[in-house]
Design a protein that fits this description.
single chain, about 70 residues, alpha+beta, 1 helix, globular
Amino acid sequence: MFGFNKKLQKEPYDRNSKKPVIHASICTGEKVAGFKDLQTGKFHEVMVIRNDSDLQFFMQKYDVMADEIVKEY
């Protein structure tokens, strides 16, 4: 099949100006992972988190540790 043998391409982000955030909806429970600009407060959406494997993929792709991620409602 396509893509199963490909190595995961890590994408760097500026750790000095952005922080990893998960936006979670209180009403629907929808979760979106992305990065928040520390100076402007603007959120840049990267991907929808449907399950734990999506979260693990986000953490591996952007080289984020679990204790770095902040959850906002």
